[in-house]
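Hi support team,

I submitted a single chain yesterday and got back a structure, but I'm not sure I'm reading the token output correctly. Could someone confirm the output below corresponds to the sequence I sent? I've pasted both exactly as they appear in my results page.

Thanks,
R.
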Amino acid sequence: MTTATSTAIGAFAVRPLDPVEDAPTLHGWVTHPKAAFWMMQEAKLHDVEREYMAIAASDHHDAFLGLLDGEPVFLMERYDPRYVELVGLYEPEPGDVGMHFLVAPSDTPVHGFTRAVITAVMEHLFADPATERVVVEPDVGNTAVHALNEAVGFVPEREIQKPEKKALLSFCTREQFAKAVAA
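Hi R., thanks for writing in. Yes, this is the structure output for that exact sequence:
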């Protein structure tokens, strides 16, 4: 599914990621110092290809490239928390969808850009009528993303211990998102 969102910043679109063709772009993003919480700082190009080929082969995990006016500007992952990332760490409800997103590094930041990206990500996820609630588990130390999550309606539930990090488990229902973006 491809979705499009028009904003004051420009037109966002989301398309399925091509693990081989998009790997060079992603490699630059995931190894950038600003992507430290992505935990791929030391990855080589083939590591990125391998990671996204595994996601493409999964029945429970998808990756998408986000475009602004046709140019790649963010990465989004959608996963089923019953099978990926959060197995055994909380009790999933019907309609739960897990999400990760990463904004491309930029030398010229645009005010409101990252908030526009997460809004486009959430609109893409909620475009699927089966999605009732989005689940995220960012690192507890990633205070910038906690603020962004809250701005689009996420409510933190509790800290959880994942194998690779201590995370803040947070949820956002369709209604919470609609209320947050209307404010």
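A quick pointer for reading it: The longest strand covers residues 71-79. Let us know if anything else looks off.

Best,
Support desk
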